[in-house]
Specification:
This protein is α+β, with helices and mostly antiparallel strands. The chain has helices at 33-46, 98-106, 124-129, 137-140, 143-146, 175-179, 212-215, 218-221, 237-243, 262-276, 286-297, 319-322, 348-357, 376-392, and strands spanning 11-12, 26-28, 50-53, 70-73, 80-84, 89-93, 110-111, 147-153, 159-163, 188-195, 197-198, 202-210, 231-236, 252-260, 281-284, 305-309, 331-333, 338-341, 361-366. The protein is built from 14 helices and 19 strands.
Amino acid sequence: MSTGTVIPARNVDPESYRIGGCAPRAALRPASRDELCEALRMAARDGLGVVPWGGGVALAGELAADRYDLAIDLRALDRIVEYEPEDLTLTAECGVTIATLRATLAERGQELPIEAPHAHRATLGGSLAANASGPRRYDFGAPRDRILGARWVLADGSLVRSGGKVVKNVAGYGIHRLLCGSRGGLAIIVEASLKLMPAPAARRALVYAMSLENTSDPSQWTPFSRLEPAVLTIAGREAAEALGLAHQGKPYTAVVGLEADAEWVERQAKSTMDVLGPPALELQGTDALDLWQRLADVEERAGARLTFTTAERSPARLRPWLEQPVGRTAVFHVLAGRIHLGPEGSEAPAMVKAMAESGFHLIDARALPSLEPALPAQVAVAALRSRIRDAFDPDRRLALGDRWVGPVS
């Protein structure tokens, strides 16, 4: 492969881009959209399997791709193209980190509506491709809900645009939303426009040590349907230890997060303590914000991970799984209806089937071999994903396309 004759100054060490222990034959770091398009045209001409890279937060822990010839590192595309604080909109290139965007917005008292694990490394493009959301998904929505438009490149090097930069200009098919969650398996996002949010005046985190009986008691959580926390997360022992939140020898840790004006936060904190009692730990302001980030970080655990969604948002809903050894690794963002479990590889197929029969729907499988769909509805969704991929990448050049989790994520 003659990458050196195309853009010689952009060649980088392929050893830095291993997936499942497998390095690509070559790696490039294009410095512009034009260079990215040229690299993809070259790859299509030579029949290469391509994987786009951002901060590499998730990719290093994946299984090796079946065909992995070329890594394309997008971190040089890191400009903030346009920021309109009055309109609460921002347009940026895909290689800028989430932490950089947050710092820029914090100066104007605004929030980025994307919660990505390891935000200091995670890029905007990678976070969109993963449709990354953390404990505040209920308040923020997923990236798919916040993206206004994007520029993206197909596997043949064609540059395409959909949507707009502000709400009133968004028109046409929302293909940019379909790309959120595609994990680089349909196209490569190079620039995106997002709706922002004002930052809250006050933040407060209440952290509780809990037994299995506390965690799985429905009456304990019923009052939260009348409260309005921004965060309600249950972490198993191993996850809590990773967070530095394991308390009093209890197997589970509950985090209740409050955000709004100071008076409202104070009232909600009192109501929470009326239900759950005094917390084992209380954090405010930037310390609470740092905890929200760590709750997102702990999702990205080493090893296998299954992510499920459920419409029944109560910690008690998860009791059958908290009683199992896998419950020690559980992270359940209750309001978001997102449950992350860490099975041993051999346990995964049976767990997926049992969870599906219990009303939990699989939306992601990390570092695991392909799992056969457990229910007829999942078979139908898998067929739909395959047809969509055929339309975007008929030659299957984007090597992670088979792992696309699709429109239900």
